[in-house]
Amino acid sequence: MNIHVINGPNLNMLGIREPEIYGKETYRDLVYKISEHAKTHNLTVTFTQSNHEGVLIDAIQNCYYEKVDALIINPAAYTHYSIAIRDALKILDIPIIEVHLSDIMNREPYRKNNMISDCVTFTISGKGTEGYIEAMDYLITVTNKVETDGEPELNQV
Ligand SMILES: O=C1C[C@@](O)(C(=O)O)C[C@@H](O)[C@@H]1O
């Protein structure tokens, strides 16, 4: 399985940026953690981090062209107001897991506004960097289930 991981604005500043909210691990630590987990489970992961909305949209569209199997995305602040990112996610017909390091539903009221939650497979919020690992584990479980269960209606004689 080949998974793309997209992180939005200011997530490159993890470890420096409000560590009491987002933790002490850096973006580099996050990429390492995800990559190590991917290695042990035979997954291919690629990454995009950008502070620019258009770059994030290009990365989402690229998942379509590159035939990526699943997307893990933390659009950061764009979660709360980007119709353009919402529209781009609607293009994809693959599992999309939305991850937030912090618990966005229990912070400032404006973070409750979520433009993408109804376009994603599910949302993991408030689990720090472990949220990305949980998203990968979910994708592994779902993929194994599809492989094990097969497509019974096609196999029936
Ligand atoms: O930049 C971020 C990070 C965030 O997506 C998170 O991971 O907790 C939550 C957003 O509200 C915020 O703007």
UniProtKB/TrEMBL annotation:
Substrate binds at N74, H80, D87, L101, S102, R111. Pathway: Metabolic intermediate biosynthesis; chorismate biosynthesis; chorismate from D-erythrose 4-phosphate and phosphoenolpyruvate: step 3/7. The keyword Lyase applies. Keywords: Amino-acid biosynthesis, Aromatic amino acid biosynthesis, Lyase. The record marks R17 as: Transition state stabilizer. The active site is at Y22 (proton acceptor), H100 (proton donor). GO terms for molecular function: 3-dehydroquinate dehydratase activity. One of its GO terms (biological process) is quinate catabolic process. It is an enzyme of class 4 (lyase). Pfam families: DHquinase_II. Its EC number is 4.2.1.10. It catalyses: 3-dehydroquinate = 3-dehydroshikimate + H2O. It comes from the Bacteria. InterPro entries: DHquinase_II (IPR001874), DHquinase_II_CS (IPR018509), DHquinase_II_sf (IPR036441). Homododecamer. NCBIfam families: PRK05395.1-2 (NF003805), PRK05395.1-3 (NF003806), PRK05395.1-4 (NF003807). Belongs to the type-II 3-dehydroquinase family. Catalyzes a trans-dehydration via an enolate intermediate. This is 3-dehydroquinate dehydratase. It comes from Haloplasma contractile SSD-17B. The gene is aroQ.
